[in-house]
Write a structure and sequence with these properties.
The complex is a heterodimer. Chain A is an all-beta fold. Chain A contains no helices and 11 strands. The chains are: A mainly beta, B mainly beta.
Chain lengths: 114, 114
């Protein structure tokens, strides 16, 4: 089955700096890669996603890149702000076959220091 | 409603009691997932329902845990003879069938076993 690794587990940056979180996946059939942000005590919320036919996607200060050959994808946050502080989860979703096909990484705790 | 609804939002019970947690997915979503999240930890997959197919129960931690989904909509997660280690937030998510669609999470049920 699919296995997703995520690094780093914790990340501290100064306000205004960039933050990068990297994930790797094992199943070459995976074709959908969302990123979720979870603030303390709240539900995980989708912030950006990328499908396997695209190499990069950007939404304001957030971008995601995908390298299918190397089986890794990354989240880039520019001009970080204190409200970006949260836990970020990457995920990989494979073929819609029987069985659990949506695998999350272990999370990255991002702290943006004012 | 517009989102995934979970009830109760909080549940406190004594060790050894049974509990039922409810999830009402977004209308039309055929896939439904249950996760467990302990304090400061990641998302632990429990069970996955896809349409009328047999559920993937591979994540259930013991036979005290069970879940059902009636009529392809509402799901109930049942924990029998609760133990203190069952204390966690239980999150439900739903999604459309195609494999390149995101999960949408509910607010979770915070379960505390005394």
């Amino acid at each position: 089955g699919e296995n997703v690794e995520q690094h780093p587990s914790t990340l501290s940056v100064q306000e205004g700096d960039s933050a990068v979180i990297k994930c790797t996946y094992s199943d070459s059939a995976s074709n959908y890669f969302p990123w979720y942000k979870q603030e303390l005590g709240k539900r995980p919320q989708l912030i950006i996603d990328i499908r396997s036919n695209v190499g990069e996607k950007k939404d304001q200060r957030i971008a995601v890149t995908l390298n299918k050959t190397a089986k890794h994808f990354s989240l880039h946050i520019t001009e970080t702000q204190p409200e970006d502080s949260a836990v970020y989860f990457c995920a990989a979703r494979g073929r819609d076959n029987y069985g659990q096909n949506f695998v999350f990484g272990p999370g990255t705790r991002l702290s943006v220091l004012p | 409603g517009a989102g995934v609804s979970q009830s109760p939002s909080n549940k406190v019970t004594e060790k050894g009691k049974d509990v039922e947690l409810r999830c009402d997915p977004i209308s039309g979503h055929t896939a439904l997932y249950w996760y467990r999240q302990s304090l400061g930890q990641g998302l632990e997959f429990l069970i996955y329902f896809q349409g009328n197919s047999a559920p993937d129960k591979s994540g259930l931690p013991s036979d005290r845990f069970s879940a059902e989904r009636t009529g392809g909509s509402v799901s109930t997660l049942t924990i029998q003879r609760t133990q203190q280690e069952d204390s966690a937030v239980y999150l439900c998510a739903s999604s459309w069938t195609p494999s390149n669609q995101p999960q949408h999470f509910g607010d979770g049920t915070r379960l505390s076993i005394l």
